[in-house]
Write a structure and sequence with these properties.
14 helices; single chain; 4-stranded parallel beta sheet; 388 residues; alpha/beta
């Protein structure tokens, strides 16, 4: 496929709230099951090892009118739980056999309980993560959580999930994460060749495709986009951060790019880049997944920092290694983790003399014009400061 065909396919998957690709995958073999997961991080390897399809659920975006979902939540929280409830109540998630709710915030914890009440015939689990990063304490807790999930998934498919099954799935996801790293590295090197609006769609395809197919898709995109030479502009290179859970509308990403910014790193689809390197396929697989989470995972507002001096290290690393000239904080409205962390990160950036700007959005936002103007002004100021 050409770049245009790949992007068109990915956009079709992105816009399909009926999860047609998931239904097609299940129909190919009787008995197949699919498990949904909310943003940030869950050990998809365990779902895959059970022979199930992990399916990323990131709300309804700007395509869904929320009617029933608003009856379950107050107006002063983010939109993603309301639109996710809307997806469930309108039957769009009926093809899922269960849902995993990782430890993101109190709202998602509440959503897991709401799901248990509304969909009693589905498997539901709130997947907690440790706040102690020692292997003996936090590691033991996390292994216990993963073992409980492994046993639950084994009961769903009617057979136990062996260590060998998990190791094979770890290898599959190692390759997928490697492809994602290759995609991010290429974009940072040539952001005009791989616009973030395209990169984002390629990543979102991984929410509904088997990881093996997604890996192939990423590498096909990289091969094809290199063949198609695109104009290079004197845009400001920025890191976009704060959108780790509720995702910005595609139009917002395009608006930032049209304003004169090259997004060279981000925290979209953090589930796909959460672990920073390969997970070992030697030894106990749950122990290796635990070590990767505890010691080799990205920082984010919803993850506890056990040392104050570590705050902001990951963001500074992103700026330095991607050659960024500034940071844009883009957080969902009422996202407590992102908005509480933002002042701390801004203080760190100011200390290192790194320019930044900030705004809030909702997944159905219509405020593209002012965001484009703000991002454009920020890009212009970066170029003026650089010249000075």
């Amino acid at each position: 496929m050409s770049v245009q065909e790949i992007v068109k396919r990915c956009q079709g998957l992105f816009e399909d709230l009926e999860l047609t690709a998931v239904k097609r995958w299940k129909a190919e073999a009787p008995g197949r099951k699919a498990i949904g997961y909310m943003p940030i991080y869950v050990p998809r390897e365990l779902v895959h090892a059970a022979g199930m399809l992990p399916v990323g659920i990131f709300g309804g975006g700007d395509q869904l009118e929320v009617i029933q979902g608003d009856a379950y939540y107050q107006s002063y929280i983010c939109r993603i739980p309301r639109s996710t409830i809307e997806l469930g109540l309108t039957g769009r998630l009926d093809c899922l056999d269960g849902m995993l709710f990782p430890s993101i915030c109190d709202v998602i914890r509440n959503l897991s309980g709401m799901w248990q009440i509304l969909f009693k015939d589905k498997y539901v689990k709130y997947f907690d993560v440790p706040q102690d990063y020692s292997d003996s304490v936090g590691g033991s807790f996390y292994i216990h959580e993963m073992q409980a999930l492994r046993e639950d998934l084994g009961n769903l498919v009617g057979k136990p999930i062996s260590d060998q099954d998990v190791k094979k799935s770890i290898a599959v996801y190692n390759d997928n994460r490697k492809a994602v790293r290759e995609l991010y590295a290429y974009r940072a090197l040539k952001p005009w060749q791989a616009p973030t609006s395209e990169v984002y769609l390629v990543l979102r395809a991984g929410c509904v495709l088997p990881p093996e197919a997604h890996t192939v898709l990423i590498r096909e995109y990289l091969n094809e986009t290199e063949k198609q030479k695109r104009p290079q502009r004197d845009n400001a290179r920025v890191v976009l951060t704060g959108s780790f859970c509720e995702q910005p509308p595609l139009g917002l990403i395009k608006s930032i790019e049209m304003s004169g910014c090259y997004v060279v790193d981000d925290d979209f689809q953090l589930i796909q880049s959460w672990l920073l390197d390969d997970v070992s396929v030697e030894g106990d697989p749950l122990e290796e997944l635990s070590k990767a989470f505890l010691h080799r995972s990205a920082q984010t507002a919803s993850k506890y920092d056990d040392r104050k001096e570590d705050k902001g290290k990951h963001l500074l690393h992103q700026v330095k290694t991607r050659g960024a000239e500034g940071v844009i904080f883009a957080a969902a409205s009422f996202c407590d983790p992102a908005l509480l962390e933002r002042p701390m990160l801004q203080e760190i950036l100011a200390r290192h003399k790194i320019p930044y700007t900030a705004f809030k959005f909702a997944e159905n936002t219509g405020q593209m014009a002012p965001i484009r103007e703000q991002a454009g002004t920020f890009a212009d100021s970066i170029k003026l400061w650089s010249a000075a």
